[in-house]
Amino acid sequence: MRLDKTYTVKEIAGLINCTFSGDENHPVTGINEIHKVTHGDLVFVDHPKYYDKALKSAATTILIDKEVECPEGKALIISTAPFDDYNRLTRHFCPVIDQSETVGINTVIDPSAVIYPNVFIGNNVRIGKNSRILPGAVIMDRTIIGDHVIIGPNTTIGHNAFYYKRKPEGYDRMHTCGWVEIHDRVEIGANCTIDAGVSGNTEIGEGTKIDNIVHIGHDTVIGKNCLLAANVGLAGCVTVEDRVILWGQVGCASDIVIGEGAIVLAQSGIAKSLEGGKTYFGSPCGEVKLKFRELAALRRLPELLERM
User: Fold this and answer.
1) Does 174 lie in the same domain as 58?
2) In whole angstroms, what is the distance from residue 63 CA to residue 46 CA?
3) Are residues 125 and 274 in the same domain?
């Protein structure tokens, strides 16, 4: 999430009543979780296992629960509860705007776009030329929709990211301040859900086609001219490169890369990153020739047992 202006670390720390180390004029230009950080961003970390990852990331301001040596060119904000203070910051800079009208404030819809009855459109949304939003669709805050996009009935774009911290009293949700960006000539079927990024974007590339009842998790980036068949489910922070085909009921774990031109056959489960240009099958999936040989061997197993 880009901030409306550049703030100093002293100003940011003051908003959450925390101490800091580093130059008090150190600039903060954005707030992001670890998968999306860039130079100028603030990121939080609250577990020793991830200290090094956060401190060595592109983020230049780290909200942390321990006083450690401050890396050169960075600043630290010391907090007893970084997750909670991170949420306080994102709610401050991106508060929830309650809405009772069917179209929110600061939303721009191109005159050539077709919006069917019973469509809900949130605040700060952009809808491009000749796009069609079919009945029952929900377009949440900050969504960006390009030109010649079709969004099917009862599909929800930009709902809250599924990102929680486990606490003794239950699960606490990270405040969503990200968005969804859908590029030109994308088609999305009925009853799909595409979650907003936590503090960055979930992105659907130009020319990609998505079937009915598909779920795409927060901060996932799908490339150009991909095909996703019905019941595909992608977790958060997945990268799907260009021209990938995912057939029906493929499931994918988080923080995985599916390489350009890969094809994953129906009902496969993706547990680790896949090279491009190959066909995969199974759960956990592997290259299709090997998996089919494994299935053939399994079919012979009863015969082999009888011989023993």
Assistant:
1) no
2) 8
3) yes
Residue 241 within any structural domain of the chain: yes
pLDDT digits (tens, 9 = 90+) for 204-258: 999 999 999 999 999 999 999 999 999 999 999 999 999 999 999 999 999 999 9
Residue type, 7: Y
Q: Residue holding tokens 């600061």?
A: 106
What band does 291 get if pLDDT is binned at 50, 70 and 90? confident
| Of the residues 66, 93, 120, the one at which a domain ends | 93
Residue 301 confidence (pLDDT): 75
52-66 pLDDT tens trace: 999 999 999 999 999
Q: Is 302 a member of any domain?
A: no
- Choose the final residue of a domain: 48, 68, 93: 93
What's the distance, Cα to Cα, between the start and end of the chain in Å?
Answer: 64
Going by C-alpha positions, the residue among 216, 226, 160, 224 that lies closest to residue 191 is 216
Q: Are residues 52 and 87 both part of a single domain?
A: yes
The answer to whether residues 271 and 284 touch, using CB atoms and an 8 Å cutoff, is yes
Counting every residue written for the chain, the total comes to 308
- Contacts (Cβ under 8 Å, ≥6 apart) of 152: 134, 137, 187, 188, 189, 190, 191, 192, 212
How many domains does the structure of the chain reveal? 2
Q: Which residues are catalytic?
A: 218
Q: How many CB atoms are located within 10 Å of the residue 75 CB? A: 24
Residues 83 and 141 in one domain: no
For residue 138, the enclosing domain spans 108-292
